[in-house]
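Form 7-S
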Amino acid sequence: MHNLHALIFAVFTMLSVPAGAAPVDINSADAAMLAAAIDGVGEKKAVTIIRRRETYGPFGRVEDLANVKGIGSGTVERNRDNLMVAPSAPADR
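Output:
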């Protein structure tokens, strides 16, 4: 049964990111979007990314993903074209 759930998740993940899709903002994407956009990252690791983002604040650059436990610089480099950090909104004065 677990394999069936994994297969269904994989199918929906593949269908959710069309070829040539725009890069995913790692500061606003949910776990499903992160798992779909980052090769080598599943739902569980995507949740870890979100927890780090919530704990330490937004990522300043894509390379900062390598600071997440279990994600190395190789994973970041392999996925660089699929990821981005959107400019932050100016602070209100």
